[in-house]
Amino acid sequence: MEQLRQAVMVLLAISAVICLAAIASASYEFRTGRLVRYPFRRKVPATAEDIRKNGLALVLNDLGVLLVDFIVVSGVLLEGARFDPVLGVGYLVAGAAGFAASFLTMFASIHLRGDVRYVKRQKAASVPSAQT
Predict the structure, then answer these.
(1) pLDDT at site 8
(2) How far apart are CA 77 and CA 14, in angstroms?
(3) Mean pLDDT value across residues 34-52
(4) Is 0.85 surpassed by the pTM of this model?
């Protein structure tokens, strides 16, 4: 059981680092109005204002995921502590508030992303080959 708990903690730590990197790239898009180049995007926002809205939606979405990570980590860490009823109720209330905040940030992200206009990504122009 202890190995499973450690594996879950490692996965949650990796997830938190990935979330922080995603928040950083989305913050860059929100701040500058320029896209971070991801090769797997099929649609991109149409204008700089749409890029900013999309960046803010991504920040809110990633923040919700990071909140869930922290709540689960605190729940896993609480399991090892000696049970105290006041501590248990405190964690329950804080966890419920955290999940509510996470839900609200993700809901706001979906609502904000609905206002963004997308266009198909243009393929890069191919370089003509040198024929002799």
Answers:
(1) 87
(2) 16
(3) 83
(4) no
